[in-house]
């Protein structure tokens, strides 16, 4: 079974362009109330991000432009996935170690979060993460 859980958003559009609406509480929608939205952009070549897990926070990562590679790790398995489709969001559950690599120059990664920022929710040490899931 894959660690990656995808949410496929409907793309609407015509000759003027495309539009994706992100909704809560609908089928194929974000499965939590969104309390924080942020985006990562202008990540320099060779820079990786993440390297943490969250105790309770859940997220959906959507590549609104460009692409990047996400490494997911549940403490037992690792899986690499490419985020490269603006109509597809990656659901990242709590207690999932994540790393982001190989950002394209034009990458803009939008993240929808279930909670407000709380430094106490982060696990930034991989060995501590493993101890919490094993």
From TrEMBL:
SUPFAM superfamilies: RmlC-like cupins (SSF51182). Pfam families: FdtA (PF05523). It comes from the Bacteria. Coiled coil: none annotated. Signal peptide: none annotated. Residues 5-131 form the Sugar 3,4-ketoisomerase QdtA cupin domain. This is FdtA/QdtA family cupin domain-containing protein.
């Amino acid at each position: 079974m894959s660690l990656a859980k995808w949410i496929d958003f409907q793309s609407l559009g015509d000759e003027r362009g495309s539009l994706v609406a992100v909704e809560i509480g609908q089928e194929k929608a974000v499965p939590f109330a969104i309390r924080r939205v942020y985006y990562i952009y202008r990540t320099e070549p060779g820079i990786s991000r993440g390297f943490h897990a969250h105790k309770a926070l859940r997220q959906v990562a959507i590549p609104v432009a460009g692409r990047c590679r996400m490494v997911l790790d549940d403490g037992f398995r690792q899986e690499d996935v490419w985020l490269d489709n603006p109509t597809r969001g990656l659901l990242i559950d709590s207690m999932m170690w994540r790393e982001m690599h190989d950002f394209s120059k034009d990458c803009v990664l939008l993240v929808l979060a279930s909670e407000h920022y709380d430094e106490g929710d982060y696990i930034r040490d991989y060995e501590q993460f493993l101890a919490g899931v094993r």
